[in-house]
Amino acid sequence: MKRNLVGGEWVAGDGHENRNPSDISDVVGIYAHADVQTTEAAIVAAQRAQGDWAHATVQRRFDALDFIGSELLRRKDELGALLSREEGKTLPEGIAEVARAGYIFKFHAHQAIAPQGELASSVRPGIQVEVTREPVGVIGIIAPWNFPMAIPAWKIAPALAHGNSVVFKPAEAVPGCAWALAEIISRSGLPAGVFNLAMGSGTVVGQTLLNDSRVSAISFTGSATTGRNVARAAAHRMVPVQLEMGGKNPMVVLDDADLELAVECAIQSAFYSTGQRCTAASRIIVTRGVYARFRDRLVDRARELRVGHALAADTQIGPVVDARQLDQDLRYIDIGKSEGASLACGGERLVKDTDGYFFSPAVFVDCNNRMRIAREEIFGPIAALIPAADYEEALSIANDTPFGLSSGICTTSLRHAKHFQRHAQAGMVMVNAPTAGVDYHVPFGGTKGSSLGGREQGTLAKDFYTKVKTTYVCA
C-alpha cells in the first residue's frame, strides 16, 4: 500500500483500491487515505518547516526544483504509462503531460533565482525604498483528476520556488500519479515537512485544509460548485484563494475559415483527452455560409476517431475516467435529445475487448445557446454545434456564458481575428488553434465564473504565492 507523506515520513491509512478505467479488472494500486488527524499532522509539519525554507538560499530552491523536473523528464515514458493507466488519457498524451510537468518544475527552478524585488527613490530626501516579496506560508493545494501531473506541478512548483510549504491533496481518482510525484519530491533535498501528501476525500482532507487556521492560502482546481464552497471557506478565514473552475468554451468558425483546419481544431478541442479538459470547446459556433459543409465534415471526422484502451497504440480517444463520469455523459445525451438537439453521431457506451468506461464522441447539431448542453460544463466528449448568422452574432453567442476560460476563432480575416481577440470574454484566446493546449511558461486562467484569484503558470504565478513588503530605509 502506498502511504501519505507527512513531515518526511510515509504514514499509513485506510487502503483504497484504484482501478484502470480502460480495464476495471486492473488494480493500479492501493493507496492510503488520510483522516483528519493525519491531515492536521501534515499541516503542523508544513508550518514547522516553512520558516527555514522561507530563508533557504535561492540556490537550494533551484536545486530541489531542478532535480524534480529532471527526474520527471527522465522517467516520462514510465510515468506517462502510469498516468494513462490511471486517468485514461492515451499514452502519447500521458507522456506529454509528464514532460510538461517536468518543464514546469524546471521553469520555476529558474524563477527561484530570478530577481524578484525592486528599488525606488523616495519622494523624500535621504530615503531609499525597497519592494520585496516574501512567501505566504503554508499552502493548501487541492488538485483535480483530469491533469494529475501537470496541474499539481503548476501549483506545487511556484509554491516551493517562492519559499512556501505545501500540503497537497490530489483527487481521489488519481492517487497513483500524486504518490509518484510525491516520492520524487521526497528525494529532492527539501527539508522534511516542506512538502506533504494527504490523499483522501474532499470532505475529510479538503475540508480540514479549508478550516485550519494554520493554512495561509488555498489553491483549488475543480468544479464551480466546489469552488464556490472553497471561496466561502477562504473568505470566512480571510485567506487568499486561487480558483480554477472550468468553462463552457466556444470555438467560432467563420465563412472564410480554412475548412479542414477548422474541423481539426474542433476535433482536438472537443474530443481529445476524452473531452475532459476545462479548456475543451464544447460549443462550436459556425456561420451559416459554411455551416452545412463544416457540420458534415465534423461528423465524419468524429465517427473516424478510434476509441479504445489508453495504452493501445492505435487509440485516439481513451475511456472516461470512471463510472460516475460515464453516467454524467450519458445523462447529457438524454438531456440534449429532450431539448430538441439532433444527435448526429456518437453518445453511446462502447463495448471493447476490456471492460472499461468507453464512450463514443458525440456531436449534437442544430443547437441553440439556451440549451443545457450549451450552458453547463459536461466534461466529456460531447460537442454542440450552433449556427450563427454572421460574425457579430457568433461573437455574441460565444460571450453568452457564465464562464470565460478559453475562446477560439477560425478565420483568415485579420480584422475579425483582432476584433475577437479584444472582445472575446475569456482569459485565453486562440486564433486558428484548438482551445485546449497551453504553454507552461505563460499565464493560465479565465474570467467570469471560470477563475478567481491570481493567474496560474508563468511569471505571474508569484503574485499568488508571495506577499509584497515595502521597506523605507533612511540613510
What does this structure look like?
- The strands form 6 sheets. Strands 14-17-18-13-12-19-20 form a 7-stranded mixed β-sheet, sandwiched between helices. A 6-stranded mixed β-sheet has the order 9-8-7-10-11-21, sandwiched between helices. The protein has a 3-stranded antiparallel β-sheet with strand order 5-6-22.
- The termini are far apart.
- It is α/β, with parallel strands linked by helices.
- The protein contains 15 helices and 22 strands.
- The longest helix has 23 residues, at about 90-115.
- It has helices at about 35-55, 60-75, 75-85, 90-115, 150-160, 175-185, 200-210, 225-235, 260-270, 290-305, 325-340, 370-375, 390-400, 415-425, 460-465; strands spanning about 5, 10, 15-20, 25-35, 120, 125-135, 140, 165-170, 195, 215-220, 240-245, 250-255, 280-285, 340-345, 350, 360, 360-365, 380-390, 405-410, 430, 450, 465-475.
- It has 2 domains: about 5-240 and about 455-475, Aldehyde Dehydrogenase, Chain A, domain 1 (3-Layer(aba) Sandwich); about 250-430, Aldehyde Dehydrogenase, Chain A, domain 2, CATH 3.40.309.10.
- It is globular.
- It is about 40% helix and about 25% strand.
- The model has no long low-confidence stretch (mean pLDDT about 95).
- Strand 5 and strand 6 (about 125-135) form a beta hairpin.
